[in-house]
């Protein structure tokens, strides 16, 4: 795969670097991707933000883990119908 840098003049792509050795008279597939910064709030800016790894400090991770540990509760082994079964036996 070859990457080409180009500028679009409104009609054609103008290569910014010397042309590579590409076969002549052969149809090529070109993926177009801008190298300039996307407009804030644009779909491309959102996709770029999602694709970048998060930049989270160690302190933030430590605080999050502390809050998770503080909010943990023991597991309950009570069925959803435990109270109902008790009522039925009492009426029995």
Summarize this structure briefly:
The protein has three helices and two strands.
Question: Which oligomeric form is depicted?
Answer: single chain
Count up the helices: 3
Structural class by secondary-structure content:
mainly alpha
Question: Poorly predicted ranges (pLDDT <50, ≥5 residues)?
Answer: none
State the separation between the terminal residues, measured CA to CA: 78 Å
Strand content: 5-15%
How many strand units?
2
Task: Identify the strand order in the major beta sheet.
Answer: 1-2
> Which word captures the global form?
elongated
Q: pLDDT average, as an integer?
A: 82
Strand/helix succession: EEHHH
Query: How would a textbook summarize the main sheet?
Result: 2 strands, antiparallel
- Tell me roughly what share of residues is in helical segments: 25-40%
Radius of gyration: 30 Å
Protein described:
The protein is mainly alpha-helical and 92 residues long. Helix content is 36%, strand content 7%. The protein is built from 3 helices and 2 strands; from the N terminus they run E-E-H-H-H. Strands 1-2 form a two-stranded antiparallel sheet. Strand 1 and strand 2 (13-15) form a beta hairpin. The radius of gyration is 30 Å and the shape is elongated.
List keywords for this structure.
92 residues; mainly alpha; 36% helix; elongated
